[in-house]
Design brief:
Helix content: 55-70%
Order of helices and strands: HEEHEEHHHHHHHHEEHHHHHHHHH
Structural class: mainly alpha
Number of helices: 19
Shape: globular
Distance between the termini: 35 Å
Radius of gyration: 25 Å
Length: about 475
């Protein structure tokens, strides 16, 4: 008899039985179920099980928080239910049956950017470190940086840009690869397509604005001329170009005879997609992406910037529940490309910190409750390091009022951040370490915003919790 046999048997029954489970897998702390009929799950009874620390539904999956012993729980559940676990990709595919059209779109966007997030975070940290050594004037009465004083640190600064440039300027390569990987087409063709968008033969995207129209190079086909412009750091052009490649490859795979597929399918798919990228979808995607970033930027610098910040700061956490928050990655990257920084990402980091602060207050209120501490302490640490799901779904949404208190604190911090134009150089770790991604001139102001995101949710949660008798 396994350690969790009894709870696994109960969980199976409370989920509606074996016939209601389409697929099951587990991640680091959660069991993930794709249910044929989610309404059959008895959520209050499931959360009352001793080994269960909370539950939530996201991206069509019903997720049960077990903790770090989830692998043992999963093995016991397999033995009880007779259901074999599936891969992460298979579970996601099955979960789409429980999603509406908008949720499926957001899931697809998420799946495109998810493989890129580690590189983007590394790039953000590198840019943040470079900020500290080449842009903070801390020496000789505030007139010199560490790079000005040390050839070693100057060399380090120059060397690290090799990685930073690869992450952000060459981002279209990663996007095209990720799209082809997700859609199940030839990944090397996606990589090559991405390389043609950032080739050194093209005018760098960052140089377009400062280059006279007459000096922009072009391809001359006699009957038409096409500008040779690169798409460094551009998101939407890369996504559109990659999907053109995907559907061209699928089309030619269907119509080309098997004996010629190895030659003709890659040739026609890649050549036509590169032409389409530079002649049609690239320029269109650039304009659409720039328009979106311009609207968002105007919201953060215009007359109603405080209102914009208050609303975004308040509602970002609920967006995480729906999955719509994944769209922010594309917007942030476009803002960085167009305006050399983003004021949106600092608000996201502050929202994460606020959720963690509400959990910290709940940990304080329930300090004598050992079972509650097992959930709250690791959830708070995780949240402060940028991973909010354990805090939000394991604690804050369970009691509801900490979630609202965190939203209020996030809104207050966001208003302060936008009011003082706090700007990040890049996307970084969405918690306390996020200060490293903030432009040096705004680091002090962001520290104050972080203090607001810590104090306000903590105090509000403590006050409301005591009134509700949470101990």
């Amino acid at each position: 008899m396994g350690k969790y046999t009894a709870d696994c048997q109960s969980l199976l029954e409370l989920l509606g039985g074996r016939e209601n489970i389409n697929a099951v897998m587990h991640c680091v702390t959660r069991m993930r179920f794709v249910l044929n009929d989610p309404s059959k799950a008895d959520i209050p009874a499931i959360e009352a099980l001793k080994s269960v620390k909370g539950s939530f539904t996201q991206a069509g999956q019903f997720q049960v928080i077990i903790g770090t012993d989830v692998a043992t729980f999963f093995n016991d559940f397999q033995q009880i239910s007779g259901i074999e676990g599936v891969s992460k990709e298979a579970a996601k595919a099955a979960a789409k049956q429980n999603q509406n059209a908008l949720q499926r779109i957001m899931t697809n966007i998420s799946e495109i950017f998810a493989p890129l997030i580690p590189a983007i975070i590394v790039g953000g940290l590198i840019l943040g470190f470079r900020n500290c050594i080449d842009s903070l004037y801390l020496f000789e009465n505030g007139t010199k940086t560490l790079c000005d004083l040390s050839q070693f640190w100057s060399g380090v600064d120059s060397f690290l840009w090799l990685i930073g440039e690869a992450v952000f300027h060459m981002l279209p390569v990663g996007i095209c690869w990720s799209v082809t990987k997700k859609m199940g087409t030839t990944q090397i063709l996606g990589i090559i397509l991405g390389l043609t968008l950032v080739s050194g033969q093209l005018l760098n995207a960052y140089a377009v604005a400062s280059t006279a129209a007459a000096d922009i190079p072009f391809w001359n086909f006699g009957f038409a001329q096409v500008k040779m412009i690169g798409y460094q750091a551009q998101v939407l052009p890369a996504i559109l170009a990659a999907f053109v490649l995907v559907y061209l490859e699928r089309f030619f795979t269907k119509i080309v005879p098997n004996v010629l597929k190895m030659i003709l399918v890659p040739f026609f798919s890649l050549t036509l997609s590169v032409m389409c990228a530079h002649f049609i979808v690239g320029p269109i995607g650039w304009k659409i992406g720039s328009a979106i970033s311009a609207v968002v930027y105007a919201g953060m610098v215009g007359s109603f910037k405080v209102v914009f910040a208050a609303v975004f700061g308040f509602f970002y956490a609920p967006l995480v529940i729906t999955g719509l928050h994944h769209m922010s990655n594309a917007i942030d990257l476009q803002l960085i490309a167009d305006f050399q920084g983003t004021m949106l990402w600092p608000m996201i980091a502050l929202s994460n910190i606020a959720q963690g602060s509400a959990v910290l207050a709940m940990s304080r209120l329930q300090r004598k409750n050992a079972q509650a501490q097992e959930i709250a302490v690791p959830a708070c640490i995780s949240c402060y390091l940028g991973v909010t799901e354990p805090a939000m779904f394991g604690v804050n949404l369970k009691y509801k009022f900490p979630f609202i208190c965190a939203m209020i604190g996030s809104s207050c911090a966001a208003v302060f951040s936008v009011a003082f134009h706090v700007t990040a150089n890049a996307i970084g770790v969405g918690g306390l370490p996020g200060i490293l991604s903030i432009q040096p001139a705004y680091m002090g102001l962001f520290a104050i915003a972080m203090a607001i995101a810590i104090v306000v949710p903590f105090v509000l949660t403590m006050v409301v919790g005591k009134k509700k008798g949470i101990y």
